[in-house]
């Protein structure tokens, strides 16, 4: 998701109010949630918050966790790393929460990960896909797969499913998420027999991509890889199509949100994602039905990842018999279960071992939607 500029993701901060290393009795289990509820990538944060709230509503309706109800403390970081830090400090210092889910983007999550490690605050990042996030230490986990895997998935899909031989890449050189995906796409595409015929970059905030697209058009690729967030992707896709570049376009989970923010220019577009809402798998169907009933919209992957983050934490609290962040951390590493975004276990870096899906953007009854295309396993 990434992903990925350093942002501390959605901080589900603290399934309990306690300070220091000892647990403290409380009437509720406090959860802080940090994410972009406003700003350029607000759709990510709002969706994740909705997923978190749905999970908490279900947990509380079933009696809570060990008999205690869960209370959410939600903070908006606007997708800004500095504001992520402020939100984190407020949740930990004022609200006394010691378990955080967040933030949504890699940049924001990275901004708070080292603080969480130093203060023994358990941080679960729903959608921050940059590799470096969990390298901050053993109190930092994530619910999503990481960029190397996602870049690899996009490249393999382009070769194996689309039959691509020549790829062009257009990416944001100042965005860790975009640059990381590009690096892994390029290496995997070449390793699978393809040739990258154009690799063009731009700067964050750019609106005119025509010069880069002209070079891409002249290189005659049969696929274009666009690893960025939905707002920028919609702009680029419109300019690509206007110049007559009608090849398939491929991207990653940052595309989630395009269905509500783009038009026909993104048709013949495919992206890697954490789940497919049209799956018939039981857990997915139940989640989608519940979410749709509550919010009157189909949940994106960010909603599913926020939802799974809460349930993984809940399961770890039950397994440890505690809300102490260190004990919950130790139980979380032994996760081995089925969630909405797949069967999840963790590797030694606390990254989930899970599959990815490729979805296609299509028109259905005149409306832009995504549909499941294929699954790529780790």
How would you describe the overall organization of this protein?
Strand 13 (about 340-345) and strand 14 (about 350-355) form a beta hairpin. Helix 1 packs across helix 9 (about 300-320). This protein is an alpha/beta fold and about 375 residues long. It is built from 10 helices and 16 strands. Helices cover about 40% and strands about 20% of the residues. About 55% of the residues are buried. The strands form 3 sheets. It has a 7-stranded mixed β-sheet, with helices on both faces. Strands 3-2-4-5-6 form a 5-stranded parallel β-sheet, with helices on both faces. Strands 12-13-14 form a 3-stranded antiparallel β-sheet, covered by helices on one side. The chain is globular, with a radius of gyration of 20 Å.
Tell me briefly what this model is.
The protein has helices at 42-61, 81-94, 106-118, 147-160, 176-191, 210-219, 230-242, 282-295, 301-320, 325-332, and strands at residues 6-7, 28-35, 69-76, 99-101, 122-125, 140-142, 166-172, 195-202, 223-225, 249-251, 269-273, 337-339, 342-346, 352-353, 356-364, 367-376.
């Amino acid at each position: 998701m990434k992903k990925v500029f350093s942002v501390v993701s959605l901080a589900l901060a603290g399934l309990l109010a306690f300070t220091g290393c000892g647990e403290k009795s409380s009437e509720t289990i406090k959860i802080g949630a940090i994410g972009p509820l406003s700003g350029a990538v607000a759709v990510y944060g709002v969706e994740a918050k909705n997923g978190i709230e749905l999970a908490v509503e279900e947990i509380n309706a079933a009696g809570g966790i060990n008999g205690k109800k869960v209370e959410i403390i939600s903070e908006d970081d606007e997708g800004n790393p500095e504001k992520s830090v402020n939100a984190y400090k407020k949740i930990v210092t004022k609200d006394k929460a010691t378990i955080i889910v967040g933030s949504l983007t890699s940049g924001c999550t990275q901004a708070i990960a080292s603080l969480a490690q130093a203060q023994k605050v358990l941080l679960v990042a729903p959608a921050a896909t940059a590799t470096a996030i969990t390298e901050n230490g053993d109190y930092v986990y994530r619910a999503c797969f990481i960029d190397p895997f996602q870049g690899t998935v996009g490249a393999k899909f382009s070769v194996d499913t689309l039959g691509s031989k020549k790829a062009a890449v257009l990416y944001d050189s100042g965005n860790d998420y975009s640059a990381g995906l590009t690096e892994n796409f390029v290496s995997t595409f070449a390793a699978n027999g393809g040739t990258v015929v154009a690799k063009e970059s731009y700067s964050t905030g750019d609106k005119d991509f025509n010069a880069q697209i002209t070079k891409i058009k002249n290189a005659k690729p049969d696929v274009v890889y666009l690893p960025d967030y939905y707002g920028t992707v919609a702009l680029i896709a419109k300019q690509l199509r206007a110049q007559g570049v009608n090849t398939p376009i491929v991207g990653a989970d940052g595309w989630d949100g395009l269905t509500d923010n783009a038009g026909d220019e993104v048709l013949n577009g495919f992206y890697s994602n954490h789940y497919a809402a049209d799956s018939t798998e039981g857990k997915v169907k139940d989640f989608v039905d519940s979410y749709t009933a509550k919010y009157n919209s189909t949940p994106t992957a960010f909603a599913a990842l926020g939802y799974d983050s809460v349930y993984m934490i809940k399961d770890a609290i039950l397994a440890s018999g505690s809300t102490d962040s260190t004990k919950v951390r130790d139980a979380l590493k032994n996760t081995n279960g089925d969630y909405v975004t797949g069967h999840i276990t963790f590797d030694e870096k606390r990254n989930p071992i899970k599959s990815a899906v490729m979805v296609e953007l299509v028109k259905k009854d005149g409306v832009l939607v995504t549909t499941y295309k294929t699954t790529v396993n780790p």
